Amino acid sequence: MGDNLTALTTIFTEFYYWVTVVFMFLIHVGFCMYEVGVSRRRNHLHTLMKNTMVIPLVTITFFLFGWWIYWALPNGPFIFEGKGLILDGVTGATQYGPASPKMGTNLQDHITGVFWAAFLLFSWTVASIVSGSLIERIRSGAFWIIAVMIGSVTWIIDAAWGWHFDGWMVKLLGYHDAYASGVIHAIGGGTALGVLVVLGPRLGRFAPDGTPRAFVPHNPWLVTIGLFLIYTGFWGFYAACNVPIISPATIAGQITGETWTATTIYLTPTTLSAITVNFIMSLSGGLLVAYLISKGDPFWTYSGGLAGIITASAGNDLYHPIQAFIVGGIGIYIAYKLHYWVERRFQIDDAVGAVAVHGYAGFVGLVIAGFLLWGYPSSPYEGYAAVNPLGNTIGAVIMFFVLGFLPGWIMATILNSFGLLRVPRQVELMGLDFRTLHDEEAARQEVRNIEKALA
Amino acid sequence: MTNTWAVDLKDVGAVYPLIGWELVMVLIAVALWILWHILQIRQENREFAEDIRLYGSKESIKKALDEHPV
User: Which terminal Cβ of chain B has fewer Cβ within 10 Å, N or C?
Assistant: First the structure.
C-alpha cells in the first residue's frame, strides 16, 4: 500500500464500505417484515422465504456474472466510441470476473471485495422491491428466476450505463442519478409492473365491475417497523453510493488543486454532510405530504417517507435541503395518485405499492433532477454532456420501461407459458402455508392428547 | 499455496487454496446454481400437486378458509 497515508486511506475506505454493507442488511430485514406484515396469515411462511432466498441466489449470480457486467458494459448497447465490449486499462472487466484472483482473498486488494458487497446489497434491494408486489400468488421458483434477472443482470446493466463514471448515458445524455432514483428504484418498480400485468391480481381482489377490494395488512406493526428498518438501512445505501475520500490526482487531475473530497459514483464532488441533510429533508417532505393525502393512513405515510427520499435521490448530492424537502413531497403526491388510478383503470394488484413508491417516484425524481440541475456538469471529465431535462427524462424511460417493464413482462410471459408463474388456484385459495399450518396444528393436538392422557 | 508468512506482504497477492483452478470452481458454481433451480421447481410442483390431492376439494378449501382466515 506504499506510504502510510495511502494505507490509512485504503483501510478507511475498506471500513467505510463494510459499515454501509452492514447498514444495508437492514433494508432486507425491513422488506421481509413489511411483506410478511402485508400478507394474510395463511401465506406468511412462503412470503418470508420468497424474499429471504433472494439473498443466496442473487449473491451467487452476482459473483458469477453481475459484477463483471458492471465493468464490461459501460459502453452501452451499441458499443459506444468503438471501445469494444471490455474497457481497457485499470477498469478492465476481466479483473472483476469470477475467475479473477482479485475476487478471492488477496492481500494486494482491500477494496474490490467491499465494493462488490456494497453493489451486491443494492442488488438484493432491487429484487426485494419486486418481491412485495407479487405476494400470495406467484410461485417462489418463478420469482427467484425474476430476482436473478433483475438483481444480477438488468439493474447492473443500467448501473453500467448510467451509474458509472464511464457510462454512455452519463457521457451522451448527461444522465445524473446520484443516489439511484432510477438505477435502483425506477427499474424495480418498472419490473414489478411488467410482471404484475402478466401475473394478474390475487383472487377476489377486484369486484366484477373492477372495483378494488381492500386486502387489509394482517399486522400493521410489522409493516411500519419494517419500513422504519428500510429507512435505517437507507442511510447505509446513501453512504455506499459515495466514494468516501479521493485525491484530485486519482481523478486524473480533473479536479485541480490538492483538496481531497468525497464524490458521487460519477466522481463529482459532494459531502457526506450534504447528503445526510438532504436525506432527512426529503424523508420529511414525503412523510408530511403522504400523511395529508392519505388522511393519516400509516401504511401510506411510511411509504410516503420512502417515496420522498427516492424522488429526491437523483439530485440529493447537489440540492438545497428545502429543494430536497419539496421534491420529496411532490414525488409521493404523484406516486400516490398514480397508484390508485392505475389500480382502478387496469386492475393491477400491487400488494405493497412498490410500483408507485419505487417506480413512479423514481421516474418523477429523475425528471425533476433534469430540470433542477440543468447545466451542472455530469462528470469531472471533459467531453461529457451537462445535466439536462431531456437526458434525464430519456434516462427515466430507459430505467422504468426499457430495462424495467420490458424484461419483467417478457420473463413473466415465458414463465407463464410453461405454467410456472402462478400458483394453482386451489392452493392460492387455501393458502400457500395451509399444509404446514395444518400439520403443525395436528402435531400440537397430538401432544395435547398425550399430555391429557398422562395427567 | 502459501507456506510461510515470514515475507514482505507487498509481494503477496492471492492466498486462497487451488490458485489457478478458478475457472473450474466457477464452472462448478454455475452448475450448482442451475441445479438448485431445477430441483426447487420440481419440489414446488410436487408440493402443489400434493396440496391439491389432499386438500383441493371445495369442502376442504372452505374449511381451510375458516381455519386460517385473513
Answer: N
How close B64 comes to chain A (CA, Å)?
6
B70, closest residue in chain A (CA to CA): A40
Report yes or no: A150 and A191 within 8 Å, Cβ to Cβ.
yes
Q: How many domains does chain A have?
A: 1
Contact: B37, A101; criterion CB under 8 Å:
no
Q: Which domain holds residue A118?
A: 4-272+384-423
The pLDDT value given to residue B70: 56
The A residues from 363 to 422 touching B (CB cutoff 8 Å) are: 420
From B2's Cα to the closest Cα of chain A, the distance in A is 12
Asked if B50 reaches chain A (Cβ–Cβ under 8 Å), the answer is: yes
Reported as a single tens digit per residue, the pLDDT across A244-267 is 998 888 887 677 787 889 999 999
- Bridge-partner residues for B14, per DSSP? A106
pTM score, two decimals? 0.95
Supply the CATH number for residue A126's domain.
1.10.3430
- Structure confidence by residue, pLDDT tens digits, A171-198: 999 999 999 999 999 999 999 999 999 9
pLDDT at B29: 98
**A215 touches B at CB < 8 Å:** yes
Q: Which three cell numbers stand for residue A29?
A: 430485514
Mean pLDDT in residue range A383-409: 97
Nearest CB to A145 within list B14, B37, B68: B37
Cα A448 from Cα A196, distance rounded (Å): 44
Task: Report yes or no: A452 and A234 within 8 Å, Cβ to Cβ.
Answer: no
- Rg for chain B (alpha carbons), in Å? 26
Q: How far is A435 from chain B (nearest CA, A)?
A: 7
User: Does residue A428 lie in a domain region?
Assistant: no
Asked if B51 is an interface residue toward chain A (Cβ–Cβ < 8 A), one would say yes
CA distance B3 to chain A (A): 15
Which residues, listed in sequence order, are joined to residue A261 by a DSSP beta bridge? A246
- What percent of chain A clears pLDDT 90, i.e. is strictly above it? 85
Residue A300, domain member (yes or no): no
pLDDT level of residue A80 (50, 70, 90 thresholds):
low
A420/B29 touch (CB, cutoff 8 Å), yes or no: no
Q: Rounded to a whole number, what is the distance in angstroms from the first to the last CA of chain B?
A: 58
Q: Do A189 and A303 contact (CB within 8 A), yes or no?
A: no
The answer to whether residue B40 neighbours chain A at the CB level (below 8 Å) is yes
CB A236 within 8 A of CB A385: no
Amino acid identity, position A428: E
What is the C-alpha to C-alpha distance for residues A196 and A158, in angstroms, rounded to an integer? Answer: 21
